[in-house]
Design brief:
By secondary structure, the chain is an alpha/beta fold. The protein has one domain: Rossmann fold (3-Layer(aba) Sandwich), CATH 3.40.50. The protein contains twelve helices and eight strands. Strands 2-1-3-4-6-8 form a six-stranded parallel sheet, sandwiched between helices. Strands 5-7 form a two-stranded parallel sheet. Strand 3, helix 8 and strand 4 form a beta-alpha-beta unit. The longest helix has 17 residues.
């Protein structure tokens, strides 16, 4: 009986959220607004930072044990990474491992990397920031050469995973390539189709779980398989595998724990870090390109 009451309450809440009118995506990108970068280098390295809560520290435990390749470090210059938080989480909400993972990337790949981890509702700001960063000569117009130099990675959880795919598609309309999309337990935002990857995405990876009232989409596919490689759709399970979720409110832990277990899963974040490092290692660094000429 208690379980039924919990389910009814949860469905009611979800109904209110998804009953909202779909937000129309703007086709005009304003210029001249503030930089959307939200991740700044912490005074103490992420992996030794006392401000990181125990559940988040555990989520990044395997990431912190890694040592990136020298090739990835050389190729990371001018890399743009944007992470989108799920639900209604706000910028810099340090309860979420996404925020600290963004700080880790900035720390790991140095100041050559531009990292933002923001609310999924701030997609306009994210796109403006991408255009500003790609505009090397600051003339307000992106040339074909500037678009071709883009090195962009988009990641997110839940609604944030949906937004990552939507922003990639918006960039496709502008002729801007995306190196990699990373989606964790996709929950589709109204009006979005986050499982069909646009042709400008070079590689995509999806992690999902299938338990609980909110669970991720089981498969992402390429709109053009000749241009987009799907690295994999990885099914994560938590029976007999405990994940600490004390960084989330009681309601989330009680009614929707699996959706947050995958968000806190050290295995997922370790795999994400490895995929990013591998993708960067496959690129030619500016010095390598110069040596070829």
């Amino acid at each position: 009986m208690k379980r039924n009451i919990k389910l009814i309450l949860f469905v009611a809440v979800v109904g209110l959220v998804f009953g909202a009118t779909a937000q129309v995506r703007s086709q005009i990108l304003s210029r001249g607004l503030m930089d959307s970068r939200q991740v700044t280098p912490p005074a103490t390295p992420v992996c030794q930072n006392a401000d990181v809560t125990a559940p988040v520290r555990e989520a990044l435990r395997l990431v912190c044990a890694q040592r990136g390749s020298d090739e990835a470090l050389r190729s990371a210059q001018r890399l743009i990474v944007i992470g989108f938080l799920g639900g209604f989480a706000k910028n810099e909400d340090t309860k979420h491992p996404e925020v600290w993972f963004g700080a880790y990337l900035r720390e790991h790949y140095s100041s050559a990397v531009e990292v933002s981890v923001i609310s999924n509702h701030e997609w306009r700001k994210a796109k403006r920031n991408i255009l500003r960063l790609l505009d090397a000569d600051h003339d307000g117009v992106l040339t074909a050469a500037e678009r071709g130099q883009a090195k962009i990675i988009l990641f997110g959880h839940s609604w944030g995973a949906s937004e990552a795919a939507a922003v990639a598609r918006d960039l496709e309309q502008l002729g801007i390539p995306v190196l990699l999309t990373i989606q964790i337990d996709i929950v589709s935002k109204p009006g979005q189709n986050p499982t069909l990857m646009s042709p400008n995405v070079e590689e995509a990876i999806n992690f999902f779980q299938s338990e609980g009232p909110l669970h991720g989409r089981t498969q992402v596919v390429a709109e053009d398989p000749g241009r987009t490689e799907i690295i994999g759709n990885f099914h994560m399970t938590y029976e007999g595998h405990r994940v600490d979720c004390r960084n989330y409110p009681w309601f989330a832990r009680t009614f929707n724990k699996p959706h947050h277990e995958i968000e806190n899963d050290a295995r997922v974040w370790n795999q994400i870090a490895l995929v990013i490092d591998s993708r960067l290692s496959s690129l030619r660094s500016p010095s390598d390109q110069a040596a070829m000429h």
